[in-house]
Amino acid sequence: MVNPNSNGPIAENARQFQDQLHRLLSKLTDTTDFIKNWPEAKGGDGSMHVERTSQLITKIHTTVKMLQRVEGFLQKDAALRETFLQCRIPLDLLDMLDSSKVNPELFARGLLREALGQLAGLKRRKLALELLGGAITSGITGVAPTQASENEPLVDEEQTMNDEKDGSKKRKMEQLEDGLHGDDVDADTTTRKKIKLEHENEPAP
């Protein structure tokens, strides 16, 4: 939690806090072992239980004082307190806290953080699988998605080509109509000239 190469008052407070925290954990372990190794009374003699109970009470008082000392460090340094609260908690310790009901709020926060981390990992795996599926599909079809989109003509291009074709057809029809109209005029002029010549060649009465 503390960088041994760091300097400054904040680092010094963190070192002292870490040292007090280690002592507290050692005292908790010692008290737990003391309770686990509680001897059985032989016969009706209860003096041994009285002595062991007195020792246990002393250990509990010592543990409480060390816990208050650790809390004092956190109360004096807000930055240190925030850093301590953001520390990741092992799942084994969370299970122990939940079973012993030591701090349900701390357990819930740690468990939620762990769940969010696993959810983020699953989202990354899902994205990787989707990319892999797309690559496999492209390999089977033999055409990459970008190439397929390039080969397909755009709607605007198709409309422009159709408009050009329609305009060309219209111009051809107009030219054809103009040609037919010109032929009719020429035929009419030729007929008139022929009638005039025939009229001139007729003998006079």
UniProtKB/TrEMBL annotation:
Extent of Polar residues compositional bias: 141-150
One cellular-component annotation, GO: mediator complex
Transmembrane stretches, start-end: none
Location(s) in or outside the cell: Nucleus
Residues in the signal sequence: none
A Pfam family: Med10
GO molecular function, one term: transcription coregulator activity
GO biological process, one term: regulation of transcription by RNA polymerase II
Ranges of compositional bias, category Basic and acidic residues: 162-184
Main location: nucleus
Region named Disordered: 141-205
Keyword check for Transcription regulation: yes
Keywords for this protein: Activator, Nucleus, Transcription, Transcription regulation
UniProt function note: Component of the Mediator complex, a coactivator involved in the regulated transcription of nearly all RNA polymerase II-dependent genes. Mediator functions as a bridge to convey information from gene-specific regulatory proteins to the basal RNA polymerase II transcription machinery. Mediator is recruited to promoters by direct interactions with regulatory proteins and serves as a scaffold for the assembly of a functional preinitiation complex with RNA polymerase II and the general transcription factors.
Family per similarity comment: Belongs to the Mediator complex subunit 10 family.
Oligomeric form and interacting partners: Component of the Mediator complex.
Protein's UniProt name: Mediator of RNA polymerase II transcription subunit 10
Protein's gene: MED10
